[in-house]
Write a structure and sequence with these properties.
The complex is a heterodimer. Chain A contains four helices and no strands. Chain A is an all-alpha fold. The chains are: A mainly alpha, B mainly alpha. At the A-B interface, α1, α2 and α3 of A face α1, α3, α5 and α6 of B.
Amino acid sequence: MDTNTIDFKRERLGYYKVLVGLLLLTAVTFIQPHLFMVESTFLAQMAIAVVKAWLIIMYYMHLKGDNLIGVMGLFSLIIVAVFFIIVIGFDVANFQYGAESHITGPASAGVENTAPAHH
Amino acid sequence: MSHEYIPEIAVDRDGNEHEVQGWQDDFYGGKLGFWLFMFTEVLMFGAMFMVLAYYNTLHPNEFIEASASLNRLLGGINTVILLVSALTMGLGLLKMRVGDVKGAKLMIWATILLAVAFLIIKGFEWTAEYNHGIFLMHGEMLPESGMAFGKKLFFGMYFSMTGLHGVHIIIGIGLMIWLLKRINAGKVSPEHHILYWNIALYWDIVHLIWVFVFPYYYMIGAGGVTGGH
């Protein structure tokens, strides 16, 4: 990626373009709860964050065109996703001490969501 | 400890000496190693986000109520500050690569100032929350207080994650000061700038984490108490 042939003006323009894109997306972050997907704010906010993250990773972190690190990153993310979502997710969904835990207990027992007097 | 670059010499069977490529010239290896480190950062914050998401599923309405009480203006200003600081860091690296060392140093100083501004604003925010009785093991957050348990979980995670992120900002400031010293000592130059490249990557990952921290904590309650999920 880094070579001695650097087109300073072109790369600087790229940085400014990404800045404008990120600023626009930040503005969308603020107006979204009042403008669109108002019943799905969480999903909309995370979707905007993913687009912002993609811009940062590809252009500010120079991953665009760097296939080896890109593939490594993707591979790592898939492994992490498998462990977090499938393995841990399955475990948490079948948490056998849910009623005894002071975190999951109140919600699962359907009582008032307040902390117990002693931890 | 000296940081002078001393090339490794290999001698062949005929007694001829050959310079082995050292780490300063191994640009790709240095970058790859730092990406591996950044994956560990993603794992750490990713685990915290998973905990946050799990608590969120247990107490969705309380999470929205707690989020609505955060100061979105200050959070938004900090978002823009980090965004601009990522630009100054990137432009500084670009200037270094084309040989403008003075311009690169100016950009590092600008990034440091923006990072300090971020911490000051975060300090104001935390102080206001503390004065409202919301802080780890204090006031409303104590076990015997009447605050809803879901809100305690939300604020507990909020202070933990924004605090850990703040620690990363402080480490970033330290790294940038160290980078300035290395540039002044001639150890980082347009020809050997992998340290600058990796510290810029570090600053980008700090920015990247905030890109997810900000909407999760500040924005999910922006649509009102009934909406958002």
